[in-house]
User: Fold this.
Amino acid sequence: MKTYAVPVFILVFLLFACQAAPHVGIDTTNSPLPVKDAAATSPSATPSSMIRTAERPQPAEPDPTPALTESTAGIKPDTIQSFPSDAALIEGVEWYILIENQAGEVLLAKNEHESFQPASMIKIPIAMVVLKLLQDQGKSLQDLHSVGVSGKNFAGLLEAMVVVSDEHATDALEFFARGGDLLRKTLDNWGLQQTTFDPRRSTASDLMLSLQILEGESALNQEFTDFLLELMGTYSENDHLFLGRFNSTLPECQFLNKRGTLLSPTVAADMGILICGEQTWFFVVAGIPAAGSSVTFEDIQASIEAFAVDFANFIDDSP
Assistant:
């Protein structure tokens, strides 16, 4: 066997060359193995958990404004304490309530978007549609005394429906308004889509809107608006009941309203516009016994009347 001798000086030279050579990085561009970012593996890199607190987004401070409840939804935060108490509204009743001031701020709301049987309160939207149709026909207030349906003039029929809640007058006016489906079309145009007649249903928010567009003269011209508001303000024998308590507790104010009452099913309700000097409030208050409740019509009536007295005190105490 042959052997090959390597000169010693060559081995020594190679040994020193290896020790003196710098470490050369390996190019892994084409490597199939994943490559970690150098910063991620560097001992000097700072883990995210070690970031200084000052560099972290700070949690928001707790909002000191109290959360809005069903009864305070829509009220400006700085006026939340300036709304009437609902302590007089008894339990065992399904309440449908919406009360707003002239600025549109909600003072009290309960089930305001839920549909219910409004009883005679629905006669205000009916009256508004009838007057709107007559207005569109070019009729004047004076014409209401000379034209009509069912053998009676419109002025007399509207008075009978709004003031004394006569059902025959209501049927005649509703039949007139239904022609050409104009009753439905007009209500929809005003935004009263939840107010229906087969069966009669509405919501507190719909009825509230009817009061507001009536008072604001955006539904009717001034002549017809004043006529309907005057009918709502005409005194009848039961005007001291329900929200009509305003008439005795706030004698300097004017309350223009329409009550709604039924015994089967039981409904006790009132809606109207309270005007005290330069201030105005809009009310829709209705109560129906809750399922399984022993509450009576008289109980709900007394509760609404007590609430009216509390609200009158609220007004007296307001700046």
